[in-house]
Structures
1.
Amino acid sequence: MKKDYSLIIEILNRNLKKYKKIVGSISYPFPIEDYAYKVFGLDIQYANFDEEFSMEGLDVKMIYGALYPDGKYFYGQEKVILINNNTNDFYIGDFQVPKEYYKPQSERQTIAHEVGHYAEFDYKKNTDLNLFNDIEYNKALDIFIDPEVFANIYARNLLMPKEEVFKLKSEIQGTIDMLNDSIYFREKFGVTQFMLEVRLTELKIQFINGYYINKVRRTKGKKYEEEDLLELIKLSKKYDMRPNYGDAAQIANIYNKHTNQDRDGASLYMTIWRINQGKYDKFYESVTESRLRALSEIANTKK
């Protein structure tokens, strides 16, 4: 059964209503730092995580941001979104993408993602779940199971609202061709190619020549061999089969060593998502069995 994420949109709309009362009209790219401060009182700071944190067994260059909500302090200050200004380089195959091509957009997305986390925190803090009727209560619990899902949906809808995306699409004749048209969307909304493809897919807007998503569409789900998918399930169990973007980058490092391939974290993130959705089940029985076994083991460890 498809999950109902409408409560996330309701929360976002309430937050936007508050913001519009303060600033009036909204223009795009969405002013995410101004929004974070005026709606939630969040301060955006930048730091080299290598200098601030030490995590055994984890490359902190793979962590893009951190949230310090009420009661959590960064150098004595709460309500801080901290952005890592020293992340790993991004590769497409063997090509190292210059950071000036994606870093500002990536940081905007990280801020929006962390704002999404805080929006959930703020909503739960100010809402007595016992006052809900049964439907609302169950809906809330269903969403709050996975904070990363909440933050991702909140961020995509904040930076790329449905109405604005369709408005820009109406100015393009025919099917969107990423080779020629992606620049218009990325400049309008201040997002990366990855978020653009995810959002268009989410809105069921057709496009061709996508780097991340259309490759899988063209090959009808058979881009990865059976053993590749089994390896991804094995590596993803550490993250409860729901890695975030930073986790996916770490998975990519290990996956590429084990398989002698050269895949980036973003494409593996989408492939793991497809595995979780059962997209490969009809191709490989072993993948179905491994996926269900992993999910069962994860559920048992949380009892």
Note: The CA atoms of residues 174 and 207 lie 9 Å apart.
2.
Amino acid sequence: MARCVSWVPLEGSGHGSDDGPGGVLRRWVPCRNKVSARGQRCSRCVRELLAHPDAQVRMWLAAEPGQDVGVLEVLAGDLNPQVAGAARRALSARGTGGA
């Protein structure tokens, strides 16, 4: 059975930009929800990371190698110009739009 590969922030953990997913185990935990194929992130984690209040987390998502084009397209419209720019650059590097 394939499991989600994402790390999720613990509620009320007080994590910050300096301790990214998986970085501080008291603040991030592996998701482990079931997914259809190995190496995937579950839809709940995708939604939570796209809406994460810390722009650095969304930038990590945009910079992730092999990121889903749909995720990058959402991030390209992010209100934070650094996040949007990172996503547009990733899309452009793939030849699928962006900057």
Note: The longest strand covers residues 7-9.
